[in-house]
Design brief:
This protein has 76 residues and is mostly beta strands. Helix content is 13%, strand content 41%. The protein contains one helix and five strands.
Amino acid sequence: MFTIEHDFDATVVTLIDEAAVHRQEDITINAFEDCVVIEQINPRTEEMQRITLSLAQLADLTAALNLPEGVYTRAK
């Protein structure tokens, strides 16, 4: 299950891990104009873990999900 919300400066997607046997914490993805921030609470420390991807990194990740094992460069 997931939700989508449109805030003033970002689109926020929340992924809810309801089907897993050992349910993981929800993941929140904030898509801004110049980057994407992925957040998840660490259940052991109760601290927010945050990863920031540039739009180029996000494009590389999107391409990588559909490619076989190997080393690639993305045409610009």
